[in-house]
Amino acid sequence: MKLLKVAAAVLNQTPFDWAGNKLRIVDAIAEARQQGATMLCLPELCITGYGCEDAFHSPGLQATALDVLQEILPATRGMIVSLGLPLEFQHSLFNVACLAVDGQIAGLVAKRYLAGDGIHYEPRWFKPWPAGQRAEVSIGDRTYPLGDISFQIGGVKIGFEICEDAWVASRRGSESVLHGVDIILNPSASHFAFGKHAVRQRFVLEGSRAFGVSYVYSNLLGNESGRIIYDGGALIASGGQLRAAGPRFSFADYVVTSAQIDIYETRLQRSRSGSFQPSFRADESTVDVPFEFPALDPAVEPQAATWESSPHLKEEEFARAISLALFDYLRKSRSHGFVVSISGGADSAAVSCLVALAVAFGVKELSLAGFLAKLGYLRRVQSAGTEREIVGQLLSCVYQSTENSGPVTLNAARGVATAIGAEFLQFDVDRLAKEYVQMVSAAVGRPLTWEQDDLALQNIQARVRSPGVWMLANLRGALLLSTSNRSEAAVGYATMDGDTSGGLSPIAGIDKAFLRHWLRWLERHGPQGVGPIPALAAVNDQAPTAELRPSSQKQTDEQDLMPYDLLDAVERAAIRDKLMPLEVLLRMRSQFPQHTLMKLGGWVERFFRLWCRNQWKRERYAPSFHVDDENLDPKTWCRFPILSGGFERELAELREYVKKQSGE
């Protein structure tokens, strides 16, 4: 029996926050030491932060990262610690993991496979390290091994898979295990998306089983740099068994997860495996470092049950991911709260509730004092004695009425704001809207009418709601939160400089159908440990409406567009799956047989026309959070030309098909 205590830390880092990043790294090392661990894996690029983007090319940033590395080294005495940073070598930049052993650099492993799809742009900044290559790099007045290397430390062999290295078919670990690696460290910066944590668990468990090793996986945590959410979720597995799993969506600066492993156990597993064929060729890629591991006693470390086992996992993940992202965005931007233009509808209610949930989750995990300490710059909340009082200090909800607003939405808006403890204000913007209408009517020499000027008369009501809430946000030093969702972004069903106004758009990455489902869940169940918000019934009982036309017209969103479940299905088929209009129609005909072919054809054509016409709106949306791999954000995920031919040829084919099938 050869027992080791290993650990993985998740860190809430910020690009270029040298002092803060260093402090969290050093504190995590100290916590791992306190837990009895001698080996610690920290996340990818944890010294600089993962989201530095084009600033990675700055020689000054690269030099500072090396300086901070040297400053951290003394904290690693008596331990083995993996630290991530960018490293320039022979006029190329590499994403490396530096292995520090007992206060000294043992060597640096360079990432072989770079993430260059979706929201990741690593090939823009880094070069992939060539397989099997080893070099020497000078840092200060010493040289260190660099490249595709492993480490023999105190009789234990350590290898690396750096994030994407484990996601590809030809996993790096499959090679290193042939040379007798006992432990694989995986420092990662793996963004949150629904269902992705289960994939990570599979490759960690399967890697530990198939390779016959212990596997230590670390990740970033929180809203690091604006759009991407990291869920943390450290994992430690050995021989196909999960030994420890860290919490996800923590509000802490760092979380250290540790477990005891038996090196001889995984070696025995390999020796018994008929499929394991070791390599005996000369191996020049191993770095030998003396180290004395402390003696340990066998122990069983119980794992506590968490919300991860909830049957409403997606609803829980959404609540926790966006809440954590909002909290981090608030404190990292040094903002003094949030302002929401609350309409009484689903979107603004969801955004408001997510702010309240951020307070609930944070206080539950950190305690009231701990939560307020993380907002130490915000003096006016420090006297709050309850969660409700914190929400009241942080969140202002503003209902802005025109003559087309009704008592149902007013009461729903007030009810939600009151239930969560937010400040509730009312602005009457009807006079402003009418003054604009009168001014333009006089200028063009005719009255504006709903029959002739419907869109303009709707949009002016949405736009006059913007200046007042912006002014309130300025007065409070607060973030104005936009309330547009992804379904509206797809078809441009939003008024630019109106309901899209804001510095942050927290739900622009989620579809309306799920959002409405989530609100019903929040009304009746709510997150584990927090509970429901029954006041949402007044919102959920309504049909979504922009409430911009006269009440006699009984305007609803789905009448203006199409049924939301169909809209979301068309969007996935057209944008995610890249199907052409006729292909989308055929899929919808199968999925929605309750609608006639004529209606489906009209809705599919409407989607494509609105999609092409409104790319400029998506380009102007406030930053949004990435929550799944169906995002429409053109800056991080879904690129599309602002000007295009608009699928005219393909839509003509669709119309011809509908005409023939309908017997016309």
Structure explained in plain terms:
This protein has 664 residues and is of the alpha/beta class. It has an 8-stranded mixed β-sheet. It has a 7-stranded mixed β-sheet with strand order 15-14-11-10-9-8-17, with helices on one face. Strands 20-19-18-21 form a 4-stranded parallel β-sheet, with helices on both faces. The protein is globular. The termini are far apart. The mean pLDDT is 94.
Keywords:
eight-stranded mixed beta sheet, 22 helices, 40% helix, seven-stranded mixed beta sheet, single chain, 664 residues, alpha/beta
What's the short story on this structure?
This protein is 40% helix and 18% strand.
Stretches where pLDDT falls below 50 for ≥5 residues?
none
Helical percentage: 25-40%
Mean residue pLDDT: 94
Instruction: Compute the number of helices.
Output: 22
Structural class by secondary-structure content? alpha/beta
* Distance N to C terminus: 80 Å
Output the strand order for the largest sheet.
6-7-5-4-3-2-1-16
Task: Give the total of beta strands.
Answer: 21
User: What is the approximate shape?
Assistant: globular
User: Gyration radius, to the nearest Å?
Assistant: 28 Å
**Largest sheet entry:** 8 strands, mixed
Taken as a percent bin, the fraction of beta residues is 15-25%
Write the layout of secondary structure elements.
Blueprint: E1 3-11, H1 18-34, E2 39-41, H2 59-72, E3 80-89, E4 92-101, E5 104-110, H3 122-125, E6 134-139, E7 142-147, E8 150-153, E9 156-160, H4 173-176, E10 183-187, H5 196-211, E11 214-218, E12 221-223, E13 229-231, E14 235-238, E15 241-245, E16 254-262, H6 263-272, E17 286-289, H7 313-332, E18 338-341, H8 346-374, H9 387-394, E19 395-401, H10 407-420, E20 423-428, H11 430-444, H12 450-463, H13 465-476, E21 479-481, H14 486-491, H15 512-524, H16 537-540, H17 557-560, H18 564-576, H19 581-591, H20 597-613, H21 615-620, H22 648-661
Helix pairs in contact: 1-2, 7-8, 8-9, 8-10, 8-15, 18-19, 18-20, 19-20, 20-22
